[in-house]
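So, can you check this record?

>
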Amino acid sequence: MCEYCEQSLQVSQHRCRSCAVPLNSDLHFCGACLTHAPLFANAYALYDYSGVCANLIKRFKFDHQLCIGDFFAHKLHEKYLNLVSDQGEYDAIIPLPLSANRLRERGYNQTHELLRVIAKKSNILIDRTSVKRIKLTRALSTLNLEERKIEINNAFSAQAMIYNKVLLVDDVMTTGSSLNELAKTVLKAGAKSCDVLTVARA
């Protein structure tokens, strides 16, 4: 990626510690999380989902532009190293699963692509098998918050796990419904706590 495009990726300096939504002040938490916090402990995002970033992610996901995913994968690796340095090691990373039908349509799970550099350069388990997506949901981008919550409910199943701390990874967090449902599934399966890392936050 050229320097101009990389510099045009918007990065919010202040985010809610709980859901990573951009904040306009030095507050630690947004009003929504103070009222009803998500099930994951902390959320981290590299960029704001707007402008150039949104366009690049769409091209990566829907136009098979895997070279764009490689750029973001290196940036995720840098962020992951910072997280481990600040917060300590994770027992495993769990990418948000795709349904079998969606995987056949797209040809790849974009989150697996985003984790290639971490998998290659870090001594961390990328657990792609313990959690399965068992419900074929409608495209969540067409739904409002309440509809998303209903649609994604019970979309995942998980094997029993003994992780103390896991990192859940996806490309974009919009409302957080999918990642919150994944966190619910992972915690119910035995994990003690989980954080979230995404390329972008809407």
